[in-house]
Design a protein that fits this description.
Blueprint lengths: L1 H19 L1 H37 L5 E5 L22 H10 L3 E17 L2 E11 L3 H4 L4 E4 L4 H6 L3 E4 L1 H8 L8 E4 L2 E9 L14 E5 H4 L13 E6 L5 H16 L10 E3 L1 H44 L1 H9 L4 H37 L8 H27 L3 H6 L1
Parallel strand pairs: 3-8, 5-7
Antiparallel strand pairs: 1-9, 1-10, 2-3, 2-6, 2-9, 4-7, 5-8, 6-7
Length: 414
C-alpha cells in the first residue's frame, strides 16, 4: 500500500507541475510526438504491407514448389548469365515427374498468355490472362467457385473447348446474367463456360483469379506452342500433407536431375522456387525500412529527450525551495527522485499518445479514402508507449537525481 500511495502522490505532483506550465509542457512534448509519430507510422506502414504481401505469398502454398527457369532472387548481383541459357520446363518434364513423384499430392503443368481480349457477342474484356493447365490444377492450387464446377477428367484429357472465368471477366461479359453454359471467344476459339471463380480482389503481388480464364492444357495445345518461353511454362508440385516439405523438395530435385540427365557435381539447369524465398527477401527489405524509420524518428526523439531533460532541470530550479520544504518535513530522497522521474514519464507519455493518435488518424484516412487497407497493430501501440516511457525515464533521471541530492537547508534558502 505504501508503494501505491507513493506512486499516486508522485503522479499527482507531476500532473500539477505540468498543468501549471501548459505552454512549456506543449512545446516539450512536441519533439516526442513527432518522433513517436514517425517511428510508429513507418512500422504501421511496413507491417500492413508485409501482412498483405505475405497473405499473397501464402496463396502459393507453404507445401508447394515451382519448377521454373529463373529463380526468385532479387538484388544488384543477380547472376542472370547463369540462367539465361537454361531450358524452360517442358510438357515432357511434367509427364516424367508425374510418373516418378511419390511424395506429391499433385503435379501440374501450366502456361499463361497475358493481355488478351475475351469476347461474348457485343461485349468484350481486355487485359485478361489466359491460363492453361493440366487436370491436376485443382490439386496444386486452392480454388473457390462462385458458380459452376471444375473440368471433368474427360474434358481435361480430350481438350474439350471449356473454360472457367475469373469474377471480373464474368461480370464484364455477362453482367448479372448467369454465364454457365454460354460460349465466349478465347484466342479465336469458341469455348463454353463451365465455372466462375469466387471474387478474390487484387492483392499486393497482383496474384488473383479475377481477370484470368482457365482452359485445359489439351485444348491449349491446338491454339499455341505450350513449350514456348513466351508463355512462361512452369511445373507446380504440391507435396502430400503427411510428408515434410524438405523431403518433397529433395525428391523433386533428384527426379528433375535424373530427367534432365544432369551429371553428379554439375549445377542444376532448373530452379525450384518456394514461398520461403519470397518471405526471406521481404524480411530483408522490410528490416532495412524499419532501420530507416528508427534512424529518422530516433533523431526527433533524441532532440525531444534533450528538450525534456532541459525542462526538467528548469523545473527542479524553480521548485528548489519546495523540495527543501518537502525534505525538511520528512520526504525521502527516493520520493523526490520518483516525483521528477514520473513528471518526465508523464510528459513523454502524453507526447507518445499524441503521436499514436496522429498515426491512428492517418490509418483511418488511408483506409477510408484509398483501396489500401491499413491497420494500427497492438504491437506498434505497445512499442510507442514503451519508447515514450523509456525516453521519459532516461531524460528525467539526472534532473530527478540532482533534485533528490539537494540539502534541505540550502534548498529552502534558495
Amino acid at each position: 500500500m505504501l508503494v501505491f500511495r507513493l506512486i499516486g502522490e508522485s503522479f499527482r505532483f507531476a500532473w500539477d507541475a505540468l498543468r501549471q506550465n501548459k505552454l512549456r509542457t506543449s512545446l516539450s512534448l512536441l519533439g516526442i510526438t513527432i518522433g513517436i509519430f514517425i517511428i510508429i507510422a513507418v512500422f504501421t506502414a511496413v507491417d500492413t504491407m508485409r501482412n498483405q504481401i505475405q497473405s499473397s505469398v501464402d496463396k502459393l502454398g507453404s507445401n508447394t514448389l515451382f519448377v521454373q527457369k529463373w529463380p526468385w532472387l532479387f538484388g544488384d548481383n543477380y547472376p542472370w548469365w547463369k540462367y539465361v541459357n537454361r531450358p524452360e520446363p517442358s510438357y515432357r518434364d511434367y509427364l516424367s515427374l508425374k510418373e516418378r513423384m511419390g511424395s506429391a499430392q499433385g503435379v501440374c503443368f501450366e502456361v499463361s498468355s497475358g493481355n488478351r481480349t475475351i469476347k461474348y457477342r457485343s461485349s468484350s474484356v481486355e487485359g485478361a490472362t489466359i491460363n492453361a493447365a493440366t487436370q491436376e490444377y485443382d490439386k496444386t492450387w486452392n480454388l473457390e467457385f462462385e458458380n459452376g464446377r471444375y473440368f471433368t477428367e474427360s474434358e481435361g484429357q480430350s481438350g474439350t473447348p471449356v473454360c472457367i472465368l475469373g469474377a471480373e471477366i464474368a461480370e464484364g461479359l455477362f453482367g448479372t446474367d448467369d454465364p454457365i453454359g454460354k460460349q465466349i471467344k478465347v484466342m479465336g476459339r469458341r469455348v463454353t463456360v463451365v465455372g466462375v471463380f469466387k471474387k478474390e480482389g487484387e492483392d499486393m503481388l497482383g496474384m488473383s483469379q479475377d481477370k484470368n480464364v482457365l482452359i485445359p492444357m489439351a485444348l491449349a495445345k491446338g491454339i499455341f506452342d505450350i513449350n514456348s518461353e513466351r508463355y512462361n511454362p512452369q511445373i507446380t508440385v504440391r507435396g502430400k500433407e503427411n510428408i515434410s516439405f524438405e523431403e518433397v523438395e529433395s525428391e523433386l530435385q533428384g527426379q528433375m536431375r535424373a530427367i534432365r540427365r544432369v551429371k553428379p557435381g554439375q549445377e542444376d539447369d532448373f530452379s525450384l522456387n518456394k514461398t520461403t524465398m519470397l518471405s526471406n527477401q521481404l524480411d530483408t527489405m522490410f528490416s532495412a525500412i524499419n532501420i530507416g524509420g528508427w534512424i529518422i524518428g530516433g533523431f526527433s526523439i533524441l532532440v525531444g529527450g534533450f528538450g525534456i531533460a532541459n525542462i526538467m532541470f528548469v523545473s527542479v530550479r524553480e521548485r528548489t525551495n519546495i523540495i527543501g520544504i518537502q525534505k525538511s518535513l520528512g520526504a525521502k530522497s527516493y520520493f523526490i527522485l520518483l516525483q521528477f522521474i514520473f513528471e518526465a514519464v508523464v510528459l513523454c507519455l502524453m507526447g507518445g499518445l499524441c503521436g499514436l493518435f496522429l498515426v491512428y488518424l492517418g490509418v483511418l484516412a488511408v483506409s477510408n479514402f484509398t483501396d489500401f487497407k491499413a491497420a494500427l497493430y497492438l504491437s506498434n501501440i505497445v512499442l510507442g508507449i514503451g519508447v515514450s516511457v523509456g525516453i521519459g525515464i532516461i531524460s528525467g533521471f539526472w534532473p530527478a537525481y540532482s533534485a533528490s541530492r539537494l540539502d534541505p537547508v540550502e534548498a529552502i534558502r534558495s
